[in-house]
Amino acid sequence: MLVVLVVAFGALAVRVTQLQAFSRDRFVAVGESQRVRTIALPAERGSIFDRDGRELALSVRQSTVWADPRLVDDPLGAAETLAPILGMEPAELQTRLARDAAFVYLARKVDDGIARQVNDLKLPGISLLDEPERFLPAGDLAAPLIGKVGIDNNGLSGLETKYEKALRGRPGTMVVERDPSGREIPGGVRQFVPSARGDDLVLTIDRSLQYETERALSAEITKAKAQGGMAIIMQARTGEILSMANLSVGDDGAVQPAPNNMTLTNVYEPGSVNKLITVAGALEERLYKPSDELTVPSTIRVADHVFKEHDPHPTEQWSITDIVANSSNVGSIMIGQKLGKHRLDHYMRAFGFGEKTAIEFPGESAGILLDTDKYSGTSMGTMPIGQGVAVTAVQMLAAYNTIANDGVYVAPKLVKATIDSDGDRRDTEPSEQRRVVSAKTAKEMTAMLNEVVRVGTGTLARIDGYTVAGKTGTARKPLEDARGYKPGAYMSSFAGFVPSERPELTAIVILDEPTPIFGGIVAAPVFADILRYGLRQFRIPPPAPVTPAGVPASDPGAARGVGEVGDPTGATGTIDPSPRPSKSP
Amino acid sequence: MTATQSRRGAAASAAPARRPGPAPAPARKQRPPLRVVSPEETRRVDRRKRARLRVAVAVFVVVGGLFGLVASHVVLTQGQFRLQQLEKKAAESQARYERLRLQVAELESPERIVAAAQERLGMVAPPGVKYLSPTGVSERPSSAHPGGRRETATAPAPDWTDVKPHLASQP
To answer: CA dist B28 to B8, B12, B31, Å?
Structure first.
């Protein structure tokens, strides 16, 4: 008996020694791991405001349902109870609840009502935790621009990605010692590192104007049975973008926000709106004056292709202003040829083509602009009329804004300021500026663009009480998977600014495959609608009109918009002869 | 009888035996014989007193300390619960603030306002906007054309400069 007792106590002594002396640290660690918990404190993601401080995107805490499977007594019963509330299959829930883990998500960021129901059940091992969820309180307004946020609160696209570092903030941690029932042990371990809220972003966008831009564009897309459309309004002097609409038609035929911010990520062949650069370059180089007249036939051969006007006409004596007002392809090609490929290339790059804008939007395209040594024989037939070159809508808008700004390019910008978690506002740097053409050239170009709207192809862009300067474009649409152009498919556009005497707002409207195809008919009215609203919204009165000397008024009798439609394929004539007035409507 | 009385009685009965006298003095209280107390004994008594005092102080300190410990633990626990309650309340208030902020933003959205105006109030968008031109602004030829074609661009009337300063300007 004594031997047994000695052996038993000896064994106990060995075990105690082993636990206390040799395995002490391990068991202390195990004990702490059961009591001490490190809780991640997610940082609140910064909000995105419009220029007047109205929320476009903000984060709100939502409840996430999670489980500690070790504490779930009856996985099947819990799964069957939770399934109808969470809208999940019981089998899926049971699989999660049976996992060998201390933490599994059951449903993330559920509605408050669902969270209350789950909480009321008081199921063992089932708990709730708060996670921030991103909301767009104005619905889909500017959604492609703002972008998306993932389930883990990280930016996936748009400005949410571009400004991820500023918006996400800095997460904190809290280390606490808790008893088995989850209550904090008084006097136990407690370390607290608070999370820092992300910076708020103040955009240059005006929410009301954005809504009106999307509304007007959506209505025209529906009316013209287009595949989609883009529209942008910019403040002329600052380069601040006031509205940026991206819409497309879904499989169900409904107009909806485009999957991405096409105005910066997608390129298109601009067509006749590009004639602005051809003519401005020629004026800047003093090759022509606005009043100089050219003998303009209905067709012109460049290398092995014959380029022609959309509407045939007898050979005319047209001034440079008439060529612009009528959007003459042949006249523009003649001007481009005199300018030469090197100077044409110089001006296209100077106006901002071929490089990304200062916005540096995620996925932004630089456009497609060939080096002059890669020009084909017909390039000097296509380039001057805006085919064979691809730009983003914002690049083309910035080019028109250069003319609106007396020849000074102003880099577009989307973010006006950031506000840190202490409430300190930091305005972004003013947009970079550079002179592209002289003020005299810009004034002359403006006067010619006035004629486009007054008597040319863009009369539907008129706004009562204001002088509008602008240019129509109807460009053929390239095939997506092969060389050449898609038959009958056009990108129709109108770009310009108002009031032309002292430009305040510059805008571009582009419709994808509309019917009718002409920018002057489908895009110009949208331009007028949204700028009419913009002029009211920003309380811009009509300035005193000023017309520079030496710019002739275009002859309404000659204003037929003969070259409105770009046709790089030459004489083969694949233009869809859909109804279009031979004279501006 | 107390111990003192018994000692006094014993002393009274022993006195006649040691010191007989002619007339017995009336019985009175007898003090114990004085003796010289040794310093050692004095120190021993002092040590006992100090030890008792120390024990009393130690007991008081231990009991007081225990009481203080329990009291502070109770206070700590109460504070912890209060802290947890306040943290929970702050989180709930923050969540409520966020939800209300979202609600306000949704109510202010242009889409909702337009829908409410059209569906609830029966409002319709105007077919067009009429602009009133300042008095005196009229159309006049803008420039000369080589071909002598028509020119109808607008130009300010002489009083335009008087009118313009009274109009709002910038966005």
So the answer is: 10, 9, 10
